[in-house]
User: Which sequence fits this backbone?
C-alpha cells in the first residue's frame, strides 16, 4: 500500500496557524537553512478551507492547480525566485521581498513605478524652468550693466 506524501511536500507554501480560523489568508513560504531563517509573505490571498483541502492529497492538489492556474503560475514564479536568491552568495531579504511583491502585485508595482517616473519627470521640468528663469534674470542684469557702462 502506497502512502501519500504529506501536505508539506506538495508545496512549500503554507497558511499561518493564526489565520486558519479566518475565511481568507495570505500564503507564506519559509526559508530555513543553516544561515538563513526567514518567513516570506507572498501577498497572495487564498481561501483557507479551499487551501487546506487542496494540500490534503496529491489528487486534490492537481485539481486545485487546474482550477487556479493563475495562482499556481505565480506560486511557481515565486518559488523559482526564492531558489535563485538562495543560490546567491549574499542573501538579500529586501531584494527577495521586492521580487516577490513584483510577481504577486505586478499591476500595483507598475502603477507605482509609473507614478514615480511621472513625478521625477515633473520635477526635472520644474528644475529646468527655474534654471531658465535664473538665466533670463542673469542676462537681463548683464544687459542693464553693459548698457550703463
Assistant:
Amino acid at each position: 500500500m502506497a502512502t501519500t506524501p504529506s501536505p508539506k511536500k506538495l508545496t512549500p507554501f503554507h497558511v499561518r496557524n493564526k489565520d486558519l480560523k479566518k475565511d481568507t489568508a495570505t500564503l507564506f513560504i519559509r526559508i530555513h537553512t543553516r544561515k538563513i531563517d526567514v518567513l516570506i509573505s507572498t501577498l497572495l490571498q487564498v481561501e483557507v478551507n479551499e487551501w487546506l483541502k487542496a494540500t490534503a492529497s496529491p489528487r486534490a492538489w492537481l485539481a486545485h492547480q487546474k482550477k487556479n492556474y493563475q495562482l499556481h503560475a505565480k506560486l511557481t514564479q515565486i518559488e523559482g525566485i526564492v531558489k535563485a536568491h538562495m543560490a546567491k552568495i549574499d542573501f538579500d531579504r529586501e531584494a527577495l521581498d521586492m521580487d516577490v511583491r513584483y510577481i504577486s502585485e505586478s499591476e500595483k508595482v507598475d502603477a507605482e513605478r509609473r507614478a514615480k517616473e511621472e513625478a521625477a519627470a515633473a520635477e526635472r521640468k520644474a528644475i529646468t524652468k527655474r534654471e531658465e528663469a535664473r538665466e533670463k534674470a542673469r542676462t537681463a542684469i548683464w544687459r542693464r550693466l553693459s548698457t550703463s557702462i
About this structure: Confidence is low (pLDDT under 50) at residues 1-5.
